[in-house]
């Protein structure tokens, strides 16, 4: 394993890092990373990021491939359950990959495959390693879905993806009726710092008159708490949020959903905030002006039709998001 720091891989380097278990075992010494002088076997390897999530042309090839022949970005898990990612011709610890730095700040749309890879590493490896087994896993966000990285102190700290209004729901004939926040994840150490609230405000406030922002199913309880705070802080946007059912159809307004939860006592104990007394910290660049998420109405990972990935969409706070 090389240097302690890792730079963002170029599109070419991402492509060259795609392999499969069979090829890797044939072409490498099978020696583990320096800290792990164990011999690597096929049982230690897995595809962390399916190749078609980065290069759609691999979809047909992977569809009928065996476990050892499926192409993608590999992950090696050692005997201590530490994970290493095969990237740029070497094994890199998960935290080294997530330690890639950038001068960007806040929510910024991913412009290249290297950043797209970070989105997938966050959901396929970091989230999976930290959350309880009872939590719904993320599917891989298709390349056509607009995705954003949350940059905190110059490092990737979260992601979100959108579904555009008018795009197909699960590859069928039905279409999304509105731009939809599909999935979201914020790393635990930066939760409760206002990032989720800031994202919702950015998305909702940029909507054209008469349009709405959809929230994909299911909406977690922690996200409901954020939404409750949102309509208290931004009452003028309370009707801009719609909730969707598991089939992607509009089921009602977020206000209606929250009212139902409050009647049932599900939000009992949640503090209310006077809009004049509480304002979430605004990010210096909640989303680059040139790449506002609403131009991509479609959420981060639920691959439209590829993998009916479980829509953690709003698993923010208790799962992927923060509740500030």
Name a few traits of the molecule.
324 residues; Aminopeptidase; 8 helices; disordered C terminus; alpha+beta; 2 domains; 4-stranded antiparallel sheet
Strands of the widest sheet, in order across it, are 5-6-7-8-9-10-11
Structural class: alpha+beta
- How many domains in all? 2
How many strand units? 11
Rg over CA atoms: 20 Å
Helices, by number, come to: 8
Helix content: 10-25%
- Ranges where pLDDT stays below 50 over 5 or more residues in a row are 272-324
CATH topology of the largest domain: Aminopeptidase
In the CATH hierarchy, the architecture of the largest domain is: 3-Layer(aba) Sandwich
Protein name: Soluble lamin-associated protein
Biased composition (Basic residues): 271-281
Organism: Chionoecetes opilio (Atlantic snow crab)
Biased composition (Polar residues): 302-324
What does this structure look like?
The chain is of the alpha+beta class. It has two domains: 11-97, no CATH class; 106-296, Aminopeptidase (3-Layer(aba) Sandwich), CATH 3.40.630. Helices cover 23% and strands 18% of the residues. It has helices at residues 11-17, 21-27, 59-63, 94-97, 113-130, 195-205, 221-233, 254-264, and strands spanning 45-50, 72-77, 83-87, 90-93, 106-109, 147-152, 155-163, 179-186, 213-215, 241-244, 250-253. The chain has a seven-stranded mixed beta sheet with strand order 5-6-7-8-9-10-11, with helices on both faces. A four-stranded antiparallel beta sheet has the order 1-2-3-4. It starts with 10 loop residues before the first helix and ends in a 60-residue tail after the last helix.
